[in-house]
Specification:
Elements lengths: L1 H11 L4 H11 L9 H14 L5 H14 L3 H10 L7 H22 L10 H15 L3 H14 L4 H13 L3 H14 L4 H14 L5 H14 L5 H12 L3 H13 L5 H14 L19 H9 L5 H11 L4 H9 L6 H6 L4 H13 L4 H13 L5 H11 L3 H12 L7 H11 L8 H10 L3 H8 L9 H14 L2 H10 L4 H11 L8 H9 L3 H13 L3 H14 L7 H15 L1 H29 L4 H7 L4 H17 L15 H9 L4 H18 L13 H15 L6 H23 L5 E4 H17 L8 E4 L3 E4 L3 H19 L4 E9 L5 E9 L7 H5 L6 H11 L3 E6 L6 E8 L4
Parallel strand pairs: 2-4
Antiparallel strand pairs: 1-3, 4-5, 5-7, 6-7
């Protein structure tokens, strides 16, 4: 329809480029442009052929824009490149460059589209479903084998590759899993889970060489699913690994702004600030390690510090290089004291304090002198500090403190003197009075020498053997696979609960009727393996009726990793098939009927109760407010004020019923108009990831539509329902209209203070500096402590960022100011204003901004501001600034 209208317009107009340029602009926005592309391009080609030379550049640029809008980017790029022959002006060249940039951006975006899925047969779908069930059942290797076949048959089938990657993960083949995930992300760049898993694998397993790729994969995952806020912590760890503390701090800031908290975040902030050379506010002391490297002059003086003047020379060395540990130790050796400067210089260097302690101790310094330094090294987390302090405490007869330090040292990551620590422990702890044969037997088993372990323990089980020794002997027999001997040892020690548990575990693998009494006692104490052992004994005796309830009891109480579960399930299934097949069939039929009825009921309930009311939806998705506000305003103005208000005329003398009916029913019934508005709202909500309730159950729009539908029905009946119509009119005015107005009071509110604005400024600064643009720190002028805007925070941050980027680009190193405040317009309405001014000589007007295409810069500010019920403003600024551009919004109600 649009193309036909424009064709007639060209036919009626003189053959000039302006008419065809208008066609190109309108056609680029027409919804049917893809279907009519060839026809429109043929028309535009005729226009280009007859256009005057001076208008051909502009017309060709608009034709290229149309080609871009229908996806023919190669033709558009070729057309724009050919325009260089026409010698375009500077402004035309700028537009051509902008169009080429836009085409390049769209090409890059299209490159991230998923590749088409291959055609998969029904047999392949069934095979994939079966492999999925095997993986869910824990048989990862069988699932992997099936997916290998499917991937070979259909290499581009994403579902098969995703299942294969999960199967590889289940069996621990990480390198192959990463390869599959790389292929999957190549096939489906929109596969968020694949990006996330690939990023986690590369971050945790890839090391420093894979850090960049890990960070890139995590960025893709966060772009697809921003709710995975924990990935910011992983990205911060990667940045720290690569020595990029500022990037780590930015990632941690994003994590905290997304609502994340926790000790891990605080720890990473502290590490990042230390790595960046910033003060860490989480501790009172500085975290940077000062240099202990002496100057060249200090080294030279140290070589000459001999003879009677050695003490003075060493003091001069310490003044020059306070952290020179050898000089401080030499000063102590010649009768001096440890310089306070040295201690202060090393106070944040744990390793340095330990080295100073060792050097001074060689000079026969007492433990009391060095103990504060070692305590400080412990506070700083020095690796060997606990070991050194344990030795000092042992010298000071503090045996309890020494033992505590040795325990802490043994729990550290990589203790270098663990054997020496064990020697010290032997001095602090008396040897156990118990026989050491149990420990010796454990060592022999660790050496895979069970016969030597038996020899250490005495060889055989007997009634007079102590219970503990019986359990130890049973363990050795069980390790050797001699289950009958192990069972006998445990039977003799059955008075012990531990022996009963071990007996039940052995008996479930090798049932023996001789242990029946002990197994019954174990089952009475709630030991699950005993039930399976008793059931196996019953099966050996042919008593299936007794075995089945015991198997059920075992399956209900056994641990998930119990090795007898699979055999017990198989035995239960076999018993059910052979003894209760008919009863089981009836039970399955009844269960199926019950489940079907329950499922039908659930579906019905879900259909009736699915979705959220508008008030809840606005709290979950604040960006839904602009379409809600537009819908509410249109309903209040067009339907309630101008159409439904005629219901009140029925009570007036001389009112004509047909006029009231016409106002309410033409051109379409008012209830249907509201229903269409609500359906548009539901569509907008789905785009925001929120499901709204059906109109019949919506607490605001639903009752209004029902009342209007009832009024429309009554108006269709001659001379009927006047009292009810009057009640409907009263409800519309007194109930429905206030309810609609209450929705407008749910507008999101974003409070900005100096700290929030400073954070946004830092983000823009980092982005512009990475792009190589100039930057000037802007001034901030904030009216009051904070200003509240009726705009969602994300939208307001986009407005601010684009205003600030535009001002920085215009100022080109000049002055920039940010203003936030409240003011009144000519009508006395309260407004909230966000302005960014600059000192550039060039001016900008509202008309120029209005003429810009949407998508970036001030045009994007214009569109978002309108969406949130505001308007763009341009006003002069006081020197040294020239102008200010900003957004103005109605102040939120108090």
């Amino acid at each position: 329809m649009i193309a036909l209208f424009l064709t007639l317009a060209v036919a009626a107009a003189p053959p000039k480029g302006t008419a065809y340029a208008a066609i190109a602009d309108k056609a680029a926005e027409a919804p049917d442009r893809w279907d009519r592309a060839d026809e429109i391009l043929a028309l535009l080609a005729r226009g280009l052929a007859v256009a005057p030379r001076w208008s051909r550049v502009n017309l060709a640029t608009r034709i290229a824009n149309f080609e871009r809008s229908v996806g023919r980017t190669a033709q558009a790029r070729e057309r724009l490149s050919a325009l260089a022959e026409l010698m375009p002006s500077a402004e035309q060249s700028r537009r051509i460059r902008e169009m080429l940039d836009r085409i390049a951006d769209e090409d890059r975006a299209r490159s991230m589209m998923d590749w088409p899925e291959p055609v998969v047969t029904a047999e392949q779908q069934s095979a994939l479903a079966a492999a999925e069930q095997r993986l869910a059942g824990g048989d990862a290797r069988a699932a992997l084998s099936a997916t290998e076949t499917l991937s070979a048959q259909q290499p581009a089938w994403r579902a098969a590759r995703w299942l294969r990657a999960r199967a590889l993960d289940a069996i621990g083949r990480v390198d192959e899993e990463a390869r599959e995930l790389r292929i999957l992300t190549q096939l489906a760049p929109s596969h968020a889970l694949a990006w996330r898993k690939l990023g986690e694998i590369l971050a945790e397993q890839g090391g420093l060489l894979e850090a960049d790729r890990a960070d890139a994969a995590l960025r893709e995952a966060l772009a697809l699913e921003p709710s995975w806020t924990g990935l910011w912590l992983l990205r911060a760890r990667i940045a720290l690994r690569q020595g990029r503390p500022q990037d780590a701090l930015r990632a941690l800031d994003r994590f905290e702004r997304a609502g994340g908290t926790g000790p891990e975040s605080a720890r990473l902030v502290s590490v990042a600030r230390a790595q960046a050379g910033l003060p860490d506010h989480s501790v009172a002391q500085a975290t940077l390690v000062p240099s202990r490297e002496p100057s060249q002059q200090a080294r030279a003086l140290f070589q000459q510090a001999t003879g009677p003047d050695a003490k003075g020379a060493l003091a001069k060395i310490i003044d020059d290089s306070p952290g020179y540990i050898e000089a401080a130790a030499a000063l102590v050796a010649v009768g001096g004291e440890v310089p306070e400067k040295t201690v202060q210089a090393l106070w944040s260097d744990g390793a340095g304090l330990l080295e100073l302690t060792a050097q001074v101790r060689r000079a026969a310094a007492p433990p009391a002198l060095v103990m504060p330094w070692v305590d400080r090294a412990v506070q700083l987390g020095a690796a060997e500090a606990h070991f050194v302090r344990a030795g000092l405490r042992l010298e000071q007869a503090d045996r309890g403190g020494a033992l505590d330090d040795l325990v802490a040292y043994a729990a550290s990551a990589q203790p270098q003197h663990l054997e020496e620590a064990r020697v010290l422990r032997a001095q602090l702890i008396a040897p156990p009075r118990a026989d050491a044969s149990a420990l010796q037997a454990r060592l022999r088993l660790a050496e895979d020498r069970p016969e030597a372990a038996l020899a250490v323990l005495g060889g055989r089980c007997a009634a007079e053997t102590p219970p503990d020794r019986l359990i130890e002997l049973g363990e050795v027999h069980e390790y050797s696979g001699q289950l009958a001997d192990a069972l006998e040892c445990y039977r003799l020690a059955a008075a012990s609960p531990e022996a009963l548990l071990r007996l039940a575990r052995v008996a479930e693998r090798a049932p023996d009727a001789r242990a029946l009494a002990e197994l019954q006692r174990a089952a009475a104490q709630g030991i699950a393996p005993a039930w399976w052992a008793l059931a196996r004994i019953d099966l050996q005796r042919g008593r299936a009726d007794d075995a089945l309830p015991r198997i059920e009891r075992f399956l209900a109480t056994a641990a998930p990793d119990d090795p007898g579960i699979a055999d017990a399930r198989a035995a239960r299934d076999d018993l059910l098939r052979t003894t209760t097949a008919a009863a089981q069939a009836r039970l399955r039929q009844r269960a199926a009927i019950a489940l079907g009825a329950a499922a039908l009921l659930l579906v019905l309930v879900a259909w009736l109760w699915a979705g959220a009311p508008l008030e809840s939806a606005l709290r979950k998705a604040p960006r839904l407010f602009p379409p809600v506000a537009r819908a509410v305003n249109e309903v209040r103005h067009d339907v309630i004020k101008h159409r439904a208000s005629v219901l009140g005329m029925l009570t007036e003398p001389g009112a004509r019923r047909e006029d009231v009916a016409r106002a309410l029913l033409s051109p379409q019934p008012a209830s249907q108009a509201i229903a269409k508005q609500y359906e548009a709202l539901r569509k907008a909500a789905r785009a925001q990831g929120v499901s709204l309730r059906r109109l019949a159950r919506e607490p605001v729009f639903g009752p209004l539509v029902r009342d209007l539908a009832r009024a429309e029905k009554l108006l269709g009946v001659a001379d009927g329902g006047s009292p009810e119509l009057a009640r409907i009119d009263s409800r519309i005015r007194e109930q429905h209209s206030p309810r609609l107005a209450s929705l407008l009071r749910l507008a999101p509110r974003t409070r900005l203070d100096a700290g929030a604005i400073s954070g946004w400024i830092r983000d823009v600064e980092a982005e512009m500096r990475r792009g190589g643009s100039s930057w000037t720190d802007p001034s901030i002028l904030l009216q009051g402590m904070e200003v509240e805007f009726p705009v969602e925070r994300g939208a307001l941050s986009i407005i601010f960022a684009n205003l600030l980027r535009n001002a920085q680009a215009a100022a080109a190193g000049g002055e920039v100011i940010v203003r936030l405040g409240e003011e009144r317009d000519a009508a006395g309405r309260n407004l909230t204003v966000l302005l960014v001014g600059d000192s550039a000589e060039n001016t900008v007007s509202l008309d120029a901004i209005e003429s810009r295409e949407s998508g970036r810069g001030l045009a994007l500010v214009r569109d978002i501001t309108r969406e949130w019920q505001g308007h763009l403003i341009v006003r002069p600024e006081e020197p040294p600034w020239k102008k200010a551009v900003g957004a103005c919004f109605p102040a939120p109600p108090a």
